[in-house]
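User: Hi! Is it possible to get a structure for several chains at once, not just one? Here's what I have:
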Amino acid sequence: MTIDERIARVKELIQKREEIDAELAGRFGLSPRVKKTALCTKCEGEGHNAKTYDAPEPQEPQVISE
Ligand SMILES: [Zn+2]
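Assistant: Yes, the chains can be modeled jointly so their relative placement is included. Here is the combined structure:
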């Protein structure tokens, strides 16, 4: 197998994977454009990133009763 053939094979596999991802996303009602949820670098939360980060509301300290 030549290098070109390997590259072609890899591209073929990636293409198939993207098609599968798109179908899976469709079945889950997600937009195929959203490939992966990026985690916020500040709090590692999903659905936003550091630029759109909103500080979570301060939680009241929990009183742990014995
Ligand atoms: Zn965050």
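The first helix runs from residue 3 to 27. The chain has a mean pLDDT of 81.

User: Great, thank you!
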